[in-house]
Design brief:
By secondary structure, the chain is an alpha/beta fold. The protein folds into 3 domains: about 25-125 and about 265-285, Rossmann fold, CATH 3.40.50; about 135-250, Rossmann fold (3-Layer(aba) Sandwich); about 295-465, P-loop containing nucleotide triphosphate hydrolases (Rossmann fold). The protein has 19 helices and 19 strands. It has a 6-stranded mixed beta sheet with strand order 4-3-5-7-8-6, sandwiched between helices. Helix 1 (about 40-50) runs antiparallel to helix 10 (about 280-285), helix 13 (about 335-345) packs across helix 15 (about 355-370) and helix 14 (about 345-355) crosses helix 15 (about 355-370). It is globular and about 80 Å long. It starts with a strand and ends in a 5-residue tail after the last helix.
Length: about 475
């Protein structure tokens, strides 16, 4: 804050009195529709706090028919704003001119003094996706897909294929990139099962709460080296998790979101010496994945052979997340325990008195109940739960992910010994091996994330936390 002298007359004499003058609080915001789950206010507030800027960031949820009335008012009253779907192109006629970035990508995501900019390219480039010398496939042909294709061309990809539902849009994107002097780009028909080195997803497939499905086949993932998904909610989509399960370089869109916001703040506040705040800005981006989980809770379902550690890992993961999320902590559910409580019998007693079919029916019903409960939960299933027909699809329809704890048979048997509470263990060792070999590919097919589970519980929990970026 600053003080200036105020000259007044008191009894005929001039005197000086300090008057406090506070720096003007700048106003920023986001224009789009819908905006209910936007992280932008949190991100921009953290950035401003890190560099000592006085400012506010508001959401302006405008339907398309409201834009002509409201946008001129916002241009006059705000120091700057971001725009997102569906207004990235609709705002252009209201602006004085476009910066080169907005002209290149054909869309605006940042406005300052009635000029349009696009910081998505800066945000994407910061993610370090390995593009040079690689065959790239871009899924989608909308605004964000255009950024991905343009940046892949600029980074030196050897070829780019564009695959989208709208063939006309895909052709338009290909033409736009070619006009920039890059000729090694072509459109693919939707559903074409092509192979490439790098997969870039610019579609909304897999976004919360519709977590089911990926825009890419498992065959395409297996043939790739790297995967990038622009979706940031959830912090790791099914596409990213499946890529990580196969040991690929894979990243979701959270870092891109943060970096494009930081680039917008640099445009709005050129007087700030941003290089002096590197450490603070790095801290501002931490914990965003946990904030996504807090705002958009989903179910995490653990599967695997008996002895894979589902209960222990589930309890430890719930406790770890509970410490980070406080009141928003996920509940932990042991499905076998729920079955025992509901039946009033132990699992061996259910098998003896009612048979395995009755056990599976009750297990299925209780599992469906847990998936429908509101809020985040970690569910440890029995070894045979998710191999039942339709239950993996039920998880995804309910907005959940499946984590397969892949334990070797030798380690599983060492852990469980001759546990008399496991009816299937009463079979001989050869039958157990046959059962293990039968179930293993079924677990793999159902899983979104595969984690090697022969190690310590704490290590397994850390691998899951890292996959979702919940550890920093």
């Amino acid at each position: 804050m600053f003080y200036i002298p105020l000259h007044i007359r008191e009894g005929g004499d001039a005197v000086s009195s300090p008057v406090e003058v506070r720096p003007r609080v700048k106003r920023f915001g986001l224009v789009g529709n819908p905006l209910a789950h936007s992280l932008s206010p949190l991100i921009h507030e953290r950035i401003m706090e890190a560099v000592g800027l006085k400012g506010s960031y508001e959401l302006f949820d405008l339907a398309p028919n409201e834009l002509p009335r409201e946008l001129p008012r916002l241009l006059a009253s705000l120091d700057g704003f971001n725009c997102t779907i569906p207004h990235k192109q609709a705002v252009i006629p209201y602006l004085k001119d476009l910066a080169p970035s907005a002209k290149l990508y054909g869309a605006v995501n940042t406005v300052c003094q009635s000029w349009g900019y696009n910081t998505d390219g800066v945000g994407f480039a910061s993610c370090g996706v390995p593009l040079q010398g690689q065959r790239v496939c871009v899924f989608g042909a909308g605004g964000v897909a255009r950024v991905l294709a343009m940046e892949a061309a600029r980074a030196g990809a050897t070829s780019i294929a564009v695959q989208a539902r709208n063939a006309e849009q895909a052709t338009g994107l290909v033409d736009a990139v070619r006009k920039q002097g890059y000729g090694q780009i072509h459109a693919l028909a939707e559903g074409a099962d092509s192979t490439c080195d790098v997969i870039l997803n610019g579609t909304p497939v897999g976004m919360w709460p519709n977590l089911a499905g990926t825009p890419v086949s498992n065959r395409q993932i297996e043939g790739a080296k790297a995967v990038f998904d622009t979706i940031y909610n959830p912090s790791a989509t099914g596409l990213v998790l499946r890529a990580k399960s196969r040991g690929l370089w894979a990243m979701g869109g959270l870092q891109m979101l943060f970096e494009q916001a930081l680039a917008a703040q640099r445009i709005w506040n050129p007087e700030v010496d941003w290089e002096n705040f590197t450490d603070g800005l790095r801290g501002a981006g931490r914990g965003l994945a946990l904030e996504v989980l807090r705002r958009s809770p989903f179910k995490l379902v653990l599967t695997g052979f008996m002895g894979s550690g589902k209960t222990q890992v589930g309890q430890a993961l719930a406790q770890r997340l509970g410490s980070a999320l406080n009141k928003s902590a996920p509940s932990f559910v042991d499905l076998d325990h729920r079955v025992v409580i509901r039946a009033g019998q132990s699992i061996p007693e259910i098998f003896r008195s009612q048979g395995e079919a009755a056990f599976r029916s009750l297990e299925r019903d209780l599992f469906a109940e847990e998936l429908q409960r509101p809020g985040a939960a970690i569910v440890a299933t029995g070894g045979g739960t998710l191999i039942q027909e339709g239950l993996a699809e039920m998880v995804r329809r309910s907005g959940g992910f499946i984590v397969y704890l892949d334990v070797s048979l030798e380690e599983a048997l060492r852990r469980i010994g001759r546990d008399d509470q496991r009816p299937l263990l009463q079979r001989g060792p050869e039958e157990i091996r046959v059962l293990y070999d039968l179930r293993k590919p079924l677990y793999e097919e159902a899983a979104d994330l595969r984690v090697v589970a022969d190690g310590k519980v704490s290590d397994i929990v850390e691998m899951i936390m890292t996959a979702f970026r919940w550890n920093g």
